[in-house]
Amino acid sequence: MEATSHRSSSALLIGLDIGTTNVKAVAYTVDGTAVASAIVPTTVHSPRPGWAYYRSDELWHQAVTVLRSVTMSVSEIGSIEGIAIASMGESGVLVDAHGEPLCDIIAWYDSRTLPQMEWIGKTVGEARIAAVTGLAMQPIFTLNKLLWLKQHEPDAYQRAARWLHVSDYVAFLLCGVPATDYSLASRTMGFDLHHLRWADDLIRDAGIDDHLFPPAIQAGTRIGSITRSAASLTGLPEGIAVATGGQDHVCGAFAAGVTIKGRMLDSLGTAECLFVCTGLPLTDPLPGQLGFTQGAHVVPGAYYVFGGVHSSGGSVEWLRDLVGRDVPLATLIDEASSTPAGSLGAMYLPHLLLGDPPNNDSRSRGALVGLSASLGRGAIARAVLEGIAFEARAGYETLLPYVGLDTFPDITAIGGGSRNDLLLRIKASVMNTTFRSLKVREATSLGAAMLAGIGAGVYIDVADALNQTRCDAMTISPDLDNVAFYDRLFNSVFKKLYPATAEISHSLYELSVQERSES
To answer: How many Å apart are CA 71 and CA 352, to the nearest integer?
Structure first.
């Protein structure tokens, strides 16, 4: 665990980010300056292929650990005025009437729920789901997980009083009030995006009890205060504000100022979120059929459309596991930088978890093609980075006309992947646009802290929060020597890679399912 601290007499706000890879807590001054931070790895369990889960007690312990570290690093503990939590969007836990967890937290990317997704799609109707919720049919969403739990853990399901997203659960343990925000509710496949309320009829038609979902309210709303027991555990002052946070990428977009129609965000974490602001939900059904999803922003009156690369940073970590963790990431990046554009003929399709928009295919698998005996580690590393960039372009490029854009605007980049300069240089050239990489290290935590400030009354509103916080950025421009080459490579090769491998991927998937069922 790492912790840093600087003395400050300003009012402080805490942003807690419970992510796929790490749990982070950061204390910020009102102008967005980080004064104390702590991080621990998120413990994930993967008992079999396609399965992954978190334990609620472990996540809570990790949250307590980073909060305790931050509060111990703050010189004036009484200056802390509020906290809000950002988290992964589709994971949550069933709790009983006393708030006790009843099951493990199925990871957002867990694929065991494919049969439930297919049943809900046929029973409720994909078109109806897209029209009401703005979501495409993907196994990651909450209704699929709840149906799986109902079928496979019926005792837990019958005893359940609430379903709480990870963010909601931690907030509940801090203040005792169950609630969620619109951005997290948007990731359940049971939320009416047009009226910002639960779609009770749709939820019931999917075989789920609609009473399980907590009240959905605007992000940045004060829902309660730190209890005495939570204060004792975390070091947070008793009675300070607990505000609704939101989905991690959306909180990051808020901190980055991506809150106005037409602005774009590239949030590069373990998964990559390609985020475009819209003024209203889209009504054209085709983006949903292609795998793009919509939701409510943490900013009142704003909406978004998501594309994504489910295995962006995950692909880099996969590569590091293959070559061995004794090889520093900086060494891999240096070797990739020394390899010319095009990776000496190698190309990578980053479908390690499932297909990405516009290829909405839950059975797709990754591919690394063009291999030869002459290729070294650097060429493979560059191919992985180029594959991530090509996949991002495929998503963004398909989405542009639906959000009223003809070409790529400047794109703001946040997250751990935004600190990979080579990846951003490749992306800028592949998309032929400028990237603005925010220098703030933890934009998601900052967005959560800003919501805490609104809930605590430190900021008057969203505009005041954005006005008082400042985020410097580094500009990355396209390499004009590579733009035309990457354009040819994207159109003549990469766009054909998924169609060429899809049938093989499906056969491999079916064989693996059959093998698991027979074992």
So the answer is: 38
Residues 6+ apart with CB under 8 A from 502: 359, 361, 364
- Interatomic CA distance for residues 52 and 104, integer angstroms: 10
Q: Which pair of tokens denotes residue 160? A: 């359940």
What are 211-214's contacts with CB under 8 Å, separation 24+? 212/94, 212/146, 212/160, 212/161, 212/162, 212/163, 213/162, 213/163, 213/180, 213/185, 213/188, 214/162, 214/163, 214/164, 214/168, 214/178, 214/179, 214/180
- Does the bond joining 358 to the residue before it have cis omega, within 30 degrees of 0? yes
**pLDDT score at 518:** 57
Residues in the chain: 519
DSSP category for residue 124: I
* pTM for the predicted model, two decimal places: 0.85
> Are the C-beta atoms of residues 351 and 367 closer than 8 Å to each other?
yes
Can you list the domains of the chain with their CATH numbers?
Answer: 313-398+482-518 (3.30.420.40)
Contact 191, 185 (CB under 8 A): yes
Q: Are strands 197-198 and 191-192 parallel, antiparallel or unpaired?
A: antiparallel
Contact residues for 211 (Cβ-Cβ < 8 A; gap 6+): none
Provide the terminal-to-terminal Cα distance of the chain, rounded to the nearest Å: 40
Which pLDDT score is estimated for 364?
93
| Residue carrying structure tokens 């009473």 | 211
DSSP states along 187-225: TSS-EETTTTEE-HHHHHHTT--GGGSPPEE-TT-EEEE
Nearest 5 degrees, angle CA 335-CA 340-CA 341? 115
Task: Answer for the pair 385, 426: CB distance below 8 angstroms, yes or no.
Answer: yes
**Dihedral sign computed on CA atoms, order 368, 374, 379, 381:** positive
Determine contact, residues 235/77, Cβ cutoff 8 Å. Answer: yes
pLDDT of amino acid 7: 35
Predicted pLDDT of residue 120 = 97
Q: What is the pLDDT of residue 8?
A: 37
pLDDT value of residue 407: 87
Measured CA to CA, the distance from residue 92 to residue 330 in angstroms comes to 35
What parts of the chain have a pLDDT lower than 50? Answer: 1-9
pLDDT at 516: 58
Element (H, E) at 150: helix 142-152
Residues forming beta bridges with residue 95, ordered by sequence position = 101, 162
Residues contacting 156, CB < 8 A, separation 6+: 94, 102, 103, 149
Token digits for 342?
């095009």
- Check residue 199 and give its pLDDT: 97
